[in-house]
Amino acid sequence: MPKSPPQTAAPLIPSHPTLATLREAASECKACDLWKRATQTVFGEGSRHAKVMFVGEQPGDQEDLQGHPFVGPAGRVLDKALEAAGIDRNDVYVTNAVKHFKWEPRGKRRIHKKPRQPEITACRPWLDAEIAITKPEVVVCLGSTAAQSLLGPKFRVTKRRGEVIPFTQCPYVVATVHPSSILRVPDENARHRAMADFIEDMRKIARLLQEKGLLAA
After folding, report:
1. Phi and psi dihedrals of 172, rounded to 5?
2. Residues 195, 184: contact at Cβ < 8 Å?
3. What distance lies between CA 70 and its chain's CA centroid?
4. Dihedral, CA atoms, 113, 182, 202, 146, nearest 10 degrees?
């Protein structure tokens, strides 16, 4: 007996979507089971005409509570790196491959739990629609989940970090680490090096935009 196709959010995408109508539709998404334990859907935010889209894995604890992407500790790391690279956060679009916070309890804390492939697949139509509407010059995948969501399960950030890759849905994709990984580095000196490397990745993005005349040098 043939397997039934995986359930996705595709039927929920409006026929002529805008970011506003997508966000409204996503607020009711139940394409996978993650909505049951999440506080709310955390949809992407940023400029409708963003030249850069940053895609993370999923909302974290603070994002789930506040309803906005990259507003927690990882978001502050991203903000610092963007500022160092001369990229205005107001000019980019930030989102996640998965729009609900997946977590497990640890005492009184809610600890991030990596989403499974069916959950990533279920959420992919939202990400595709965000890319189609904003038409970014480059999509930056933050971490392996985002990179594998767009570039396939065999993609390895460790091997292709910072590589400018032509892409079907926009001119380029670049993959780097998720900013939360920098926060988890236990050694202070190693953490500073990791942050410096992350900033250099952002500067590479800035140089790419400068070459295209999309960012002032």
Report:
1. -140, 150
2. no
3. 9
4. -20
- Nearest Cα residue to 161 out of 171, 173, 170: 173
Cβ pair 147, 155 in contact under 8 A: yes
Q: What is the DSSP string of 20-77?
A: HHHHHHHTT--SSGGGGTSSS----EE-TT-SEEEEESS--HHHHHHT-TT-SHHHHH
CATH code: domain of residue 36 = 3.40.470.10
Domain count, the chain: 1
In a domain, 138, yes or no: yes
Range of the domain at 41: 12-211
pLDDT in tens, the chain (217 residues): 455 556 899 999 999 999 999 999 999 999 999 999 999 999 999 999 999 999 999 999 999 999 999 999 999 999 999 999 999 999 999 999 999 999 999 999 999 999 999 999 999 999 999 999 999 999 999 999 999 999 999 999 999 999 999 999 999 999 999 999 999 999 999 999 999 999 999 999 999 999 988 887 6
The secondary structure of residue 106, as a DSSP letter, is E
Between strands 52-56 and 92-96, the pairing is parallel
